[in-house]
Amino acid sequence: MRRESDLGLDADAGRSRGHGFDLAPRLAARERRGLRRNLTPAERVAARTRVAPDPKGGVPDFDSREQLVFAANDYLGLAANERVQAAAADASRQTGTGAGASRLVTGDTRTHRALEREIAETKETARALVFSSGYATNLGVLSALAPDLVFSDELNHASIIDGCRLADTETQVYDHCDPNDLRAMLDRRAHEATGDESWLVVTDSVFSMDGDVAPLEELCAAAEEYGAWLMVDEAHATGLYEAGGGIVQREGLADRVHVQMGTLSKALASQGGYVAGSEMLIEHLLNTARSFIFSTGLTPPAAAAAHKAFQIARDGDWPARLWANVERLRDGLEELGYEVWGETQILPVVVGERETTMTLAERLRERNIIAPGIRPPTVSEGTSRIRVAPMATHTDEEIDRCLAAFRDAGRALDLL
Ligand SMILES: Cc1ncc(COP(=O)(O)O)c(C=O)c1O
Question: Is the pLDDT of residue 8 over 60?
Fold first, then answer.
């Protein structure tokens, strides 16, 4: 076994000699700015779990107490659903535990094709293509489209921002959810532009930190007026709206959105990302999206789990149960006197000041509620918040326990 000293590492300070990397001061600087992150291992992915302090390289030692999770993106609670688990197990036996190669080599299986058909039908498009993550999807799609110009909402997800960087394209950022600002930018550029340029407007549909919804109809109209394409990231909406679809389906805009993108990793309780659109779009992407071509195909168990979750979301009453929990929790938090933003299943409880927010998150944790504090730079100064995400599998009694914890912790901190 190679020791740290063999690798040129100074074991006591974590410093390296010569042309290596001196990481200790970088970590110390993060620590000083209050930005050092720690992992919190969880025993299982479900509405209730036990957690452990970060064991670093060791094996976690879980608390005896169970915590209620109001922090996951597994909004329908399907990661713990027996039918979804059975679908993953069957695919693992029948198709294989891994894809074994890129989809373009031998990693393209019936399991992938069945999922892609389901996605295309749900998203009302000709075809769909799955990637190994939502992050890889945004990187692949944006760099493969290689627009001359991207118009991007200021609160778009990091994977969209990174996709624009990888595409090495000019990006103009419009004010959050503001079609008038977008229109003004499109108009300015239309007057400046010489020759043919390809323009892409890109937006999340549900914003993960604010829980609000992009005005898709108006964005479509603005993009259409200037002949631009519109790409919508439905990561936090897919599976929760009309027939297992997202906001694009709720608004009836499938034929006006050129690129529907999303993840399999949130309400669909799996892993992976997808893009849905025209035959030509999918053929172009599977020929040119490097994160698709040079990466092993999505694992068959992940594809099968997402497929089953899609069917359950479409046919079952899980979305209705989620919305009932959201209403009970939002009403309860507002009655307590908290300010709750957004209009979706993501409930940002805005506290304002960053230290108080992080203390509130700790006090909730002491009361067995996991709901993370979100502070700058993730959100703007003065809007630090607790991001509360109920799940369809929480019981009424559990929602009430969450409310009681917010009441007691808020009173203890003089917030209420
Ligand atoms: C809006 C949005 N897009 C894309 C992603 C990336 O998806 P994944 O976690 O599947 O890589 C996320 C998730 O973090 C997201 O919130």
Answer: no
